[in-house]
């Protein structure tokens, strides 16, 4: 397990702040990250459920496993609404 | 003008995400060049009414570094086809009628310019981490 900073945006940032640190296994999938987040922050579950995960500023692919290191930038991306 | 050299290809596209008001004419001027015969621009503005919902103002925020990277990924293949891309998105608090986004494509012919401009705004709205927080007369809404 490792302590991983998670960047937050939009309504999640308003609710929980710009960044939280959660405990994750070294090897993760996007849904595992979201489940871990929702377990630690159950009040934000609805927003986390609809979000995507980005690793190093690229959308992570569902069902793909990622081996995280201390240098990786992980973010939860709520449904985007620019334009 | 932002110049990016990648291998032998000189990138001409201009991408901007900032709190400054969009300077529409300056953005348009970046698209003009002798090799292009068609320029299509899309400008998204803050709308007052969405059905029965009345909007007072909108605040835009972004994951700026990723948004820039996503825009790069969108612009690259269009420019590889010989067109020029200019995209600007405004952040912060915008009032009714303010310009929120500018997407412009210059191409040799209008067909490509129309097609790629629509493609870019559609992709921006789906894949670029920018969010709007809408303050409406009844409540606050995130997103659409």
From TrEMBL, chain A:
<dbReference type="Pfam" id="PF02597">
    <property type="entry name" value="ThiS"/>
</dbReference>
<dbReference type="InterPro" id="IPR016155">
    <property type="entry name" value="Mopterin_synth/thiamin_S_b"/>
</dbReference>
<dbReference type="InterPro" id="IPR003749">
    <property type="entry name" value="ThiS/MoaD-like"/>
</dbReference>
<protein>
    <submittedName>
        <fullName>Putative molybdopterin converting factor, subunit 1</fullName>
    </submittedName>
</protein>
<dbReference type="InterPro" id="IPR012675">
    <property type="entry name" value="Beta-grasp_dom_sf"/>
</dbReference>
TrEMBL record, chain B:
<dbReference type="GO" id="GO:0006777">
    <property type="term" value="P:Mo-molybdopterin cofactor biosynthetic process"/>
</dbReference>
<dbReference type="Pfam" id="PF02391">
    <property type="entry name" value="MoaE"/>
</dbReference>
<dbReference type="InterPro" id="IPR036563">
    <property type="entry name" value="MoaE_sf"/>
</dbReference>
<protein>
    <submittedName>
        <fullName>Molybdopterin converting factor, subunit 2</fullName>
    </submittedName>
</protein>
<dbReference type="InterPro" id="IPR003448">
    <property type="entry name" value="Mopterin_biosynth_MoaE"/>
</dbReference>
